[in-house]
Amino acid sequence: MEIPSSLLSLSLGLLFSFVLAASADVYENFVQCLTSHSQNPTSISQVIYTPNNSSYTSVLEFSIRNLRFLSPDTPKPLVIITPLHESHIQVAIICARNHGLQIRIRSGGHDYEGLSYVSHVPFFILDLINLRSISIDVENSTAWVQSGATLGELYYSIAEKSKTLAFPAGMCPTVGVGGLFSGGGYGRLHRKYGLAADNVIDARIINANGRILDRESMGEDLFWAIRGGAGGSFGVVIAWKIKLVPVPSTVTVFTVRRTLEQNATMLVHRWQYIANKIDNDLNIGVDLGRVNSSEGKQTIEASFDCLLLGGVDELLGLMQKNFPELGVVKEDCTEMSWIESIVYFGGFPSGSSLDVLRDRTPLTRNTFKAKSDYVKEPIPEIGLEGIWRMFYEEEAAIANIILTPYGGKMDEIPESETPFPHRVGTIYQVQQAVGWEEGVEASERYIDWMRRLYSYMTPYVSNSPREAYVNYRDLDLGINNEKGKTSYEQANIWGAKYFKNNFKRLVHVKTMVDPTDFFRHEQSIPPVSSWWKKRGN
Hints:
By secondary structure, this protein is an alpha+beta fold. It is 33% helix and 20% strand. It is built from 18 helices and 18 strands.
């Protein structure tokens, strides 16, 4: 029997009203719980933002880095909490558990799929922007940094205390340390010193019961999991103790650009044979994309970006020995301090003050979709030419591929040392990204182009599994069930790509520390209840 349209509309309206009423009840009860359980109700009320608050929208949008998740249709949090104290986080966790709210933990807001600030079930955002203190111990070459700090703030603080200490992490200064450390974190120093996560020596985490744990009290299994197992699965890491690394007072950089007419295809092909084998002090990455040539024609450009921990004469000698085809000359190179190289690679205008590193507002915000891969064998020139053809398509006007060399220290660390498994045998990592300016309504066309490029790359990248970098989150790889439990087999579809054989141990740790799956999202590590029962708990 056909249902009359008027009755259907009434039913849908009543259902929508019921959902709104239920959400309102959850929201009111949650906020009341926060104030009633807080040691200082006045203090916590100052960091609670609801949709009725005039600052709600600005607080929500300030740390959204992918404009794809800024549309009116994007689900919004019932509440945003910007804690000033650890106790605020403890209360938020207890109240969220009591009232059935999901938590989204935001450090810098750079999650590629918006998982730190978007959910399709009732949720609140725990925005760590106020927890960003940094304490540098030059004598012991260590630092404590809270998860809400950005990389730029961390680097600036290190440079204030020492010109010859650094930290191996990312090159984008507005990225939050909480998210980056949780997933690995590479930059220009990883060939020399490994990832950010490889240099974490202690941490403070608040678990699903609201307890604050350090490395000793959390145990080595959980400490292993949070250094590369990605954020949002095990608890709220509030601070990290990191090992600082030595750098010379002078480093040297260059950016050399070559188009197809300047043998870019041959140079990229040749780069693959030396990128992971050259001196550990040398890092040469490649950025590929479409540009207009000096004649006004469209072409493909390869930008070779280099950092050497040393002077220009040493760099020229290494380039002549390992990569003479690029034709680097002294005029291409600039000597500077390590902290100045952070500003240089951050894309800031020449002559910018170091103060730009403390600005949490990014130079640009884009609408984009990205994917990642790992390459074990050099891509032949004919394979590169197929990529160029895709770059000439209409959707690729704001598209690029970044090739990041591995080798060096990355080869020396066993793939089970942390959850991040992409180690020995990897020549380089690939990041593929496409952006667009037409707005969210054009998303599907550009995302389809990205998926076609990803498909094209299949024969040239790792397989069984096809590996991916968890900090370049990609929900195309698979997701957990929105409601109910997710099986190990289902989660392993995406989990093996990010973590390879380490995924099984991550599930074991999750099952031990958060068996009810309080900390969850579309690609969080799931607990497996059958494993928990085998432990006799």
